[in-house]
Structures are given as C-alpha cells and as structure tokens.
Design goal:
This protein is α/β, with parallel strands linked by helices. The chain folds into three domains: 3-14 and 29-179, ANL, N-terminal domain (Rossmann fold, 3-Layer(aba) Sandwich), CATH 3.40.50.12780; 234-410, Rossmann fold (3-Layer(aba) Sandwich), CATH 3.40.50.12780; 415-512, ANL, C-terminal domain (GMP Synthetase, Chain A, domain 3, 2-Layer Sandwich). It has 17 helices and 26 strands. Helix 2 (32-48) packs across helix 3.
Length: 520
C-alpha cells in the first residue's frame, strides 16, 4: 500500500482521532476528518496547474502540520517529493532542485526569502506557492487553489511509481539523488510493523527534520489512527516537556540529541510511562549511553539501521531483543544494530563478494524490495554500489551466530596506523563511557612515523572537565596502545550536518591540508 492509502484508511476508521498537533502552538490539533479535505484540495490544485503524476515537487518548510498536509497533497496527486532541508544553505538547495529536475516549490512563509532566491536560481521551477497564507512572495495556496477541484482521489498509482528523490548526506561531495519508490516505502513500513508495536492510541513526537527519517516514520502511525505531535525545535528540555504533555509513545532521535537529553539535570524526574519505543538511529550509538537511557526512560530503547538507499530498516532492534527472560540487558545485543528485518536479505561480504563467516568483519550488504532502484541520472554510481547484485552500505560489521549485526565502522573512516587497521567507532565507544564525555569523534591525522596517527576530538558535557592524558589512558587500558589516541582535542561543539551527523570530513580538513594524500 501507498502512504496516502494508509492515511485514507485512518479517515475511514478513526475520523475523530487527532492526526496532527503542533507542539507549543495555541491551535487545537487537527483530526483525520479535518485534514483529508485539505489534502484533496492541494492535490486538485496541483493537477489543475498541470503538475500531474510524476511531477517533481519540492517542499521547503519547518516541521509543522501544514507541511505534513502539503506532503499528503502531493502524495495524493501522485507527484514525486523532493525533500528540501531548510537547514541547508540556499546554494545547496538550488543545486538539488536543478539536478533533480524540480518543477514546483511549495514553501512556508518562514522561508519566503529562500524561496524567492530558489525561484531566481532554478529555471525549471515554474512557480513558488506559499502553503500557510499570503507572505508577499509567490502566490498563496488559497489563491492558487481557486478554480481547482475541491476533491481529488488518486486511482492509478502503482507501488513501482517514484515516491521521492532524497539527497544523500553529501559530506564528501555533492549529494546524489536516491530514487525511492512506493514499493521501497511499503517495505520499510512492513519491516517496522513486523518488529515494533504500532496500535491504537499512539502518539509520535516529530523532532528530527521531516525531510529526514521523522517524516516517513510519522506516516507509519496513520494505519492505526495515531497522532503526530510536531516540534520545530531540537531543544532537549522542550523535548522532555513534550514527551510528558502529549503522552508520547514513539519518537526518533539521532544519538547526538539523546546524549544532550541525558545531560539534562532533571531528566530522571520526568514521567515517561507512556513511552513504548524510543528509536535511535542515523549514527552508531554508545553502549554506555544506551544503558543510561534504559535506566532513565525504561526498557524502550530501540534501534533501526538503514540509509537513504535502503530507508531506515536494514536491521532492527526492539527492547525484547536485548533483554533476557529475567529483564537483564544482554550487552552484545544492545551494542548491536539488531537482526536483519524480515523483508530484507542481509549479508556480510568480503571485497570479492563472498559472504564472510559469522563473527568476521566485512561490508554490510542488503538486497530486496527495500533497496532503491538507483541514483537519479547517475548510472555509474548505481553500478558502483550494486556489485555482485547486492547493495553495499559502506559500513563494516560482523554478524553473530544468532544473526545480530554489530557495526565496526564506516569503511571510509578506517585508520591505517603503523600497518594496523583501526576502526574509530570502537575507540569512540570507550571515550563515550567516560562520565565527562558527551560525544567524541576519532579521526586519522598525518604522522611521519605511523603514516596516520589516531586523534580524538571530544565534546564534554556542560560543566564537566577532564584532561587529554586521562582519556588516552582510558583507551589504552581498554583497547591497547595501538588504538589509543596519540592526542586529544576538545571542542565546545562538534561540527554537524543538517541532520545532526558529526562531519568528520570537516574535522580532518585542517590536519590534511597541503598533504600529498588527502583523506576524505
């Protein structure tokens, strides 16, 4: 099924349930019955103006109810969504809209100036439409909808039609466009429903950008008439407030934001009794931080490993996967990213394409209906990641005898020091266990003796302190001298991408500038 069909089923069976509510707004929540006509009018307006099935429509908006309604309108119209992250600079979004053949831009008044610039820079964008009223830029959605059909129900959409073109992270160059079909999203939803609890009365807190995982995971709650409580900020204390006020049952956060929440002085004084799944993803999580989170939030910590090309759910770990019959944590399973989802084929492969024995490291690869058909207008890049008929994730991992996969590191992040292969994630796990450390990033830097030397860059918790020698000694004790950092730098804030991932490429730049061999 397509997302819009799940939404329409919610209108049939849960018409009076609250579908969307903006956290912090004085406006009341919107029911499914109230939301559906708005999505139909948006779809009717799209077709009225010639943006028919397959048109590429960008949406530039903060997390908000109106942004969700715009998405549902374009899904109903069978258009292709171009997620435009408002945290990106205008030149980046302009480049994406041009390379991904954007036809139309729907925007929120909060980004009116950005929308005007994008219209000027992107010849292919026919119109820009403000979705939340008159703003002096473009045309308002209300005005644009005049003369269009009041109701619009799609009938011809197929699972193999394109759903969206998502940009990759782009941390080492221009983002590639990942084509996702409705079948890919259908498989993602099926995987989540097979491994997690979704039922009547759910409330999903939308915190991460809707242009990233939070938008699609929010759509998963339609099938059971769930509520999406939508936040337009990533302030840890406000997240905790919203969890209590809205009796949140599900939320997704990257590890970085989880760590900031754990550092709140009153984090243990809140009521999380409604919480069923606290989903962490987008980057490897610290084992010690996950244990702390279980102690704070209860046995609800969950994890999904995926990537844009295989959205959100290559492997999944639910709370019952890492707890034994007596309620004790099984460390190896908690540290893992879970088992392959039931609708995926997952294997650990060596360079020649052969499967590695259980317990031995190799590249995590996946195939099946979850995997993108390819990169938009980039056949060479598609071939590169499809060697041996598997999609290659670029992550190095090991699979245990009972099927649990543990990430060793990103293939490209591996450090070669004195002829030894060192994976930064292993060191970061040890550093994150220190009581003063909020987050760390380990990189290789040029060294005359070792070729590359291990360097740790550390962000401390607010008000905490420790010194370089203390952290080096900790890693040396746990992992030995080869893996111990040769130096430690302290930063107030680690550089991050618009979706919160630590940008190691930015950290490396200052150390590799002018070197004969640059490490990206």
């Amino acid at each position: 099924m397509r997302i819009i069909e799940h939404f329409d089923n919610a209108v049939r069976f849960y018409p009076d349930n609250i579908a969307f509510v903006d956290v912090g707004s004085d406006e009341p929540g919107m029911t499914y019955a109230q939301a559906q006509p708005i999505t139909q009018r948006i779809a009717g307006a799209l077709h009225h103006h010639g943006y028919n099935s397959g048109a590429h429509v960008g949406v530039l908006a903060p997390n908000s109810t109106i942004a969700f309604l715009a998405l549902l309108g374009l899904f109903r119209a069978e258009c292709v969504w171009l997620p435009i992250n408002p945290r990106n600079p205008v030149p980046v979004n302009s480049d994406l809209l041009q390379r991904f053949d954007g036809d139309l831009l729907l925007f929120h008044s909060a980004y009116a100036d950005e929308a005007r610039q994008l219209r000027e820079q992107c010849p292919g964008i026919g119109e820009i439409v403000c979705i939340d009223g008159e703003c002096g830029t473009g045309v308002s959605l209300e005005q644009w909808s005049l003369g269009a059909a009041e109701t619009f129900d799609s009938k011809s959409g197929e699972l193999d039609d394109n759903f969206a073109i998502f940009p990759t992270g782009g941390t080492t160059g221009k983002s590639k466009g990942v084509v996702l079909t409705h079948r890919n999203i259908h498989t993602m939803v099926s995987n989540f429903y097979s491994h997690f609890n979704y039922h009547d009365g759910s409330c999903h807190l939308v915190v991460a950008p809707m242009t990233h995982t939070a938008g699609v995971t929010g759509c998963m709650h339609f099938a059971r008439g769930g509520t999406n409580a939508i936040m337009n900020s990533v302030v840890p204390a406000e997240i905790a407030d919203a969890m209590e006020k809205h009796k949140v049952t599900h939320l997704f956060l990257p590890p970085t934001v989880l760590y900031m929440m754990l550092a709140l002085p009153d984090i243990r004084e809140r009521d999380y009794s409604n919480l069923r799944h606290f989903l962490v993803g987008a980057a490897p999580s610290s084992l010690e931080k996950l244990k702390e989170a279980i102690d704070v939030f209860g046995p609800v910590m969950s994890e999904a490993f995926g990537q844009t090309e295989a959205p959100a759910a290559v492997t999944i770990k639910a709370p019952w996967d890492y707890m034994d019959a007596d309620g004790n944590i099984i460390d190896a399973r908690l540290h893992s990213i879970g088992r392959p989802c039931v609708f995926n084929n997952v294997a650990i492969l060596e360079e020649e394409g052969n499967e590695r024995p259980r317990g031995e490291a190799g590249e995590i690869c996946v195939r099946g209906d979850l995997v993108t058909p390819g990169y938009y207008k980039n056949a060479a890049a598609t071939r590169e990641v499809r060697r041996f008929d598997w999609h290659h994730t670029g992550d190095i991992g090991v699979m245990s005898s009972d099927g649990y996969v543990t990430i060793v590191d990103r293939k490209k992040d591996m450090i070669i020091t004195g002829g030894f292969n060192v994976f930064p994630n292993e060191i970061e796990q040890v550093l994150s266990a220190h009581e003063a450390v909020q987050e760390s990033a380990v990189i290789g830097v040029p060294d005359d003796k070792w070729g590359e030397a291990v360097k740790a860059i550390v962000q401390l918790k607010p008000g905490a302190s420790c010194d370089e020698g203390e952290l080096i000694a900790l890693v040396k004790e746990e992992l030995g001298s080869v893996k111990a950092p040769k130096s430690v730098d302290f930063l107030e804030n680690l550089p991050r991408s618009p979706v919160g991932k630590v940008l190691k490429v930015e950290l490396r730049k200052q150390y590799w500038e002018g070197q004969a061999r640059a490490v990206n």
